[in-house]
Amino acid sequence: MVSDCVMTDNQYRTFCVSEEQVGDRFDRVLSLQFPDISRSRFKQLIKAGTASINNAPVADPSRLLADGDIIAIAIPEPEPAIPQAEPIPLSIIYEDDALIVIDKPSGLVVHPAAGHWTGTLVNALIAHCGDSLSGIGGVRRPGIVHRLDKETSGLLVVAKHDQAHKGLSEQFAAHGRDGRLQRAYVALVWGTPARPQGTVDTHLDRKATNRQKMAVVKSGGKHAITHYSLLESFTNGEGRFILSQIECRLETGRTHQIRVHMAHVGHPVLGDATYGSGYAASARNLPEDAQKALQTLKRQALHAAQLGFEHPITGKAMTFRSNPPGDYQRLLETCRKGLRSQKA
Question: Distance from first CA to last CA of the chain, Å, rounded?
């Protein structure tokens, strides 16, 4: 419940703790009181020393509130975007004041990190959106709510302000279990699954011997569920299954989830040097043109083809679709020409 003694402007907000808020965490109450700013941002501001309770500075976001506490917090002016804007072309599927949907090409890193501090999707979005990034919470930047691997192409939604970021983040945190979020990928994988439909249900964690790789673990890690459906299978002249095109729908969204899961069940994604290296020799079973197309691909044959979510401001259900890019399509077509194709 919103307190009846709220004072707010863009840079300074204060209110009295109501009976319903007694005993709740400081950062959580602030995010409920002022939903245009995320809880994580309030936590940062509290730790930075911009908040007080009863005129006394409080730097502990977990502080429990008492009835009648007078809360005040200063919201800094929006800072210049870090990283900086870069004029990188974008394939924009949809855009409004709250969000933008991008068809990401392979090879584009989503967020700056070690080894990729420039030339990322975030750099491009800062340049494209400019002042339309609101800077609520004191930082002018796009809100990344999910990511695609560098070499995975396809659909990705980004928030333009904190309220949209909060609404989208809640949907991705629910992993689609509440029906609002849908994510579907297409992939070319080695071999053909024994059943036309199936589910891979495991736990994933960082590999102990290589922290850059994920692995299926028996205990610990994070729960990961991938549902797959066979779209098309390919056999050679002897009737041997060589590869398949499948659709994968995510019930959870873990790092490298589809790539790890399909490798785990014996059907790694074509071109995946990280999780499918043991199948590199399988390329010799492809027609010559398909072998060349796979060499040209130079990435995993994985594309985020469908993205559906509830608009975080209007509540409208939105669905977007994207066809795989040319390198994926060329590989698929050469397989259709040189192998026997059967649609599921």
Answer: 53
